TrEMBL record:
InterPro entries on file: ClpP/crotonase-like_dom_sf (IPR029045), Enoyl-CoA_hydra/iso (IPR001753)
Signal sequence region: none
Record protein name field: Enoyl-CoA hydratase
Any single Pfam family the record assigns to this protein: ECH_1
Biological source species: Sphingosinicella xenopeptidilytica
Amino acid sequence: MQIESSPVLYAVDSAGIARITLNRPETGNAQNVAMTYALNDAFVRAAHDNAVRVIILGGAGKHFSTGHDLKDQTFDAVGRDYPLTSTWADIDLDSIEGWYGWEREAFLDMCRRWRSIPKPVIAEVRGACIGGGLMLAWVCDLIIAAENAFFQDPVVAFGVGGVEYLSHAWELGARQAKEKLFTTDRWTADEALAWGMVNRVVPLDALEQTTLELARKIAAKPAFALKMAKEAINGSLDAQGLQQAIDRGFALHQLAHAQNRLKFGGLLDPTGLPEAIRTSGEVCELVIGKPIGEA
């Protein structure tokens, strides 16, 4: 296991269950640059370890993830302290081209890599799963949600059409996807279950045990058969156009950033945000205007 100060914790039990834990509970597990690269390292580690049969992804503290940490200031370490993981090496946060390279490296390509891990991955979701948190849950094969879990993609309020891994229509259905994007409203664990986004909803105090029991049941199956089953189902979604839709969504996401740079001088459109956030200059994806403790 990594040291407790790490933004991501990693452990493997005797049944071959790898537990990856987002470990910034003081921020609701908001994802900064350090967490993104540590999470990638953990996923690759589990993928390469033949003793690992199933992977569980969860969050320390009250929340799964409140999204991207938009106040993160460590981008200049990318390529130095955090080696690039994709071929998009032209990262320059002062240009539209360079920002496209950053989001392609850290979000789109990361998500696709994690989705393609040839082992079952289960998301264990409690509390908030917002913005970039949705991306982490949606790349997992199964989602077990606590009764207190809630979900939200608030970025239309920021002047952007959706998070970078825009698979909403597949996860929620087109009508619900449009409503939740247009309004930026939250949805509950029970609603997510009814729409087919999550597999089970359980009491909070039963979340970890339920997820572990499911992981162990899956881990007892032949590993190669599990890999082929995952490939088959993912391939069926891709044949329906999932990957092309994500590519189009990502391109439109970057167009919105470019528009906001020209019109507002930054990546986000401030006009859709509450006055308290506009005047403070602080924006996080735990929207809108509610501190983590009130989520």
